[in-house]
Amino acid sequence: MTDAAEVRALTQELLAAHPPATTDRTDFLRARFDAGLAWVHYPAGLGGLGAPRSLQAVVDAELAAAGAPDNDPRRIGIGLGMAAPTILRFGTDEQKQSLLRPLWVGEEVWCQLFSEPGAGSDLAALGTRAVRDGDDWVVDGQKVWTSSAHVARWAILIARTDPGLPKHQGITYFVCDMTDPGVEVRPLRQITGEAEFNEVFLTGVRIPDSRRLGPVGEGWKVAQTTLMNERVSIGGSRIPREGGMIGPVARTWRERPELRTHDLHQRLLDLWVEAEVARLAGERLRQQLVAGQPGPEGSGMKLAFARLNQEISGLEVELRGEEGLLYDDWTMRRPELVDFTGRDAGYRYLRSKGNSIEGGTSEVLLNIVAERVLGLPSEPRSDKDIAWKDLAR
Amino acid sequence: MTDLLYSEAEDDLRAAVRSLLAARCDAAAVLTRAESDTPYDPGLWASLATDMGLAGLLVPEKLGGQGATHREAAVVLEELGRSVAPTPYLTGAVVAAETLLGCHAENPASPEAAAVAELLGALADGRTVVALAVPLSAAPGAHVPRAVRAADGSLSGRVTAVADAAAAKVLLVPAEDGLYAVETGTPGVTVESLTPLDLTRPLATVVLDGARGRRLAGSADAPVRRGLLAGAGLLASEQLGLAEWCLEETVRYTRDRKQFNRPVGSFQALKHRMAQLWLEVVSARAAARNAADALATGSPDAPLAVAVAQTYCSRVAVHAAEECVQLHGGIGMTWEHPAHLYLKRAKSDAIAFGAPGRHTQAVAELVGLPAPQ
């Protein structure tokens, strides 16, 4: 059993052998991975120690105190939060050995080729085809809303390998090399004017069978691991009061008395209270996770934040009056990091419209809460037992 | 940061209260009791207050209480809210107890201090029900209501909408020159029952006409504010329990009830409303626990935590009860079904200790978001 003292000692050994001040950033991160201090709950040899996840905080605190560089997790969130847990659970030894280290260090960025123009909320209806040809699979299709595709080395990809089966059964999960011929990435401009995301066109892309994750036809099951981890990775950190979208509008209210009206005051106070309660609910969820009592509450947090972000940013545009008629910049740009509370009120208003769509629409999330948390019966379904090729489209 | 979870001891306390209420206070019993001349069940109160020792949770052990905190009292109130139990718990064991605890005598040997200690002991053992004689709608931050004049220890005046006055043996009466204890059933004290919206929390007008009172404190302001702050903060837990029952009962019913050859709970139009309500209940729990913990630790943030919890939980409880009636359809509109008891309690609770608008005003002051000039 590994305990906090042991982990602390290992961290100090790492710092002594590779002083952050004089060590190249990438070299330090590689050494940290090899010392098992990247993600301590991962197995030994794959960046971890097989230790309880809670001990990671001990490592992180020691390293932060020593001024050690981190792996810039926001830049490689899809790799860390979605690809890695899936590779760990379903990958072959060779896949784990070759992929996890550069993923964690940040030398190789990952993206996710899941959504399609014809498969959004109904992801299992996806139509990108993968056809077996010798030792390879030949992939044709179109993916959409792919963040980081233009900088990614690898993608996690789900594609249809048997159209004759019902939709959940004929899917297989692959690792796709984004530098292969036949992979074309185009920016997808969104209502904010910029392009955070991409469309990815796959034309005759050859993926060796050795880059399949999990058995043929089991891709939907494998993808559940990916998507479950997406939800876990949201809402893990402690937020200070006025830490979210309410912060900028509260500051504007305090600094600009000439903008105040009674109607806006009532609405601001109601939203302030709701934002504070959502923050407390997030904090309660965090305390449950730390205490090892995860509850179903996490499913609801995204719903709450999506609605609040939209209402608060909408109020702020209105509060700004004449300035609310203006927008900072419509230039098509490719931001590397997205900050929901960044830029001006107009941007926040437009960007937050995506919060109730990305990562599961609020309508789908309400169904999930109703069925999985409350145990309400599902709607009668006509799509479960017929072949994918016979679905209405 | 406040502790927003429940401890094992709190879980055990909840289980004990829930099992007692399940045996003694089901919906049919509450309805029958509400229509009778004695809205309280003295046997139930004796079990809760005396046998389980819950009346004295907030009273220190040296004064005869349990020396527990607002966190435990909040758990009791969640359960009382779940069963809309007609007991003078919030008014007596929380508001009156906190008011008495707020009477800081400068001289501990004074007659005032002795009277306070004696009353706390009597309150804690559950045999003496004590109520604060202010309208149930009085908010903690507002001006302390003073409808009573005092002259040589003789009190006169009229206080309306006092909760649980009919069950009380002692009334705590704020007057201009202090806080007084007045025994009901003595000359010059009349308690006139009113017809309340919430059948499970009786209201009365208290009329004092030359009543004798024992002075407990030289000023009523600080004790009454403390009592009302605790009342408002822990009312949020009652509202949470109430909302939780409404959601659970609605989910249970809509899974069972069939129309159009399927359970009505399978329609998205209904499911989304219940999922939304679940999210509100989850959030209300965080707000209510935050208020209870802030009161328990004496945090300087307690007034804000209480104002946030009251604003939010009042609305959630009313929303849950209204959805409960609507999603039950016709049966939810009948006298026979208990949904109306919850609706009436929820609506009345929203006004109790200040309507949500009062509490958002408090938030505005506490966090510096001022109204337009």
TrEMBL record, chain A:
Organism domain of life: Bacteria
Cofactors required: FAD
Domain Acyl-CoA oxidase/dehydrogenase middle: 111-195
Keyword Transmembrane attributed: no
Acyl-CoA dehydrogenase/oxidase C-terminal domain segment(s): 217-374
Ranges of residues in domain Acyl-CoA dehydrogenase/oxidase N-terminal: 6-107
Keywords: FAD, Flavoprotein, Oxidoreductase
This protein's record includes keyword Coiled coil: no
Family: Belongs to the acyl-CoA dehydrogenase family.
Name the record gives this protein: Acyl-CoA dehydrogenase
Annotated source species: Streptomyces chryseus
UniProtKB/TrEMBL annotation, chain B:
SUPFAM superfamilies: Acyl-CoA dehydrogenase C-terminal domain-like, Acyl-CoA dehydrogenase NM domain-like
Top-level taxonomic group: Bacteria
Sequence ranges assigned to domain Acyl-CoA dehydrogenase/oxidase C-terminal in this UniProt record: 228-365
InterPro entries according to UniProt: Acyl-CoA_Oxase/DH_mid-dom_sf (IPR046373), AcylCo_DH-like_C (IPR036250), AcylCo_DH/oxidase_C (IPR009075), AcylCoA_DH/ox_N (IPR013786), AcylCoA_DH/ox_N_sf (IPR037069), AcylCoA_DH/oxidase_NM_dom_sf (IPR009100)
Pfam families, sorted: Acyl-CoA_dh_1 (PF00441), Acyl-CoA_dh_N (PF02771)
Cofactor(s) recorded in Swiss-Prot or TrEMBL: FAD
Domain Acyl-CoA dehydrogenase/oxidase N-terminal, chain residue ranges per copy: 7-93
Keywords: FAD, Flavoprotein, Oxidoreductase
Signal peptide coordinates: none
Family: Belongs to the acyl-CoA dehydrogenase family.
Protein name: Acyl-CoA dehydrogenase
Organism: Streptomyces chryseus
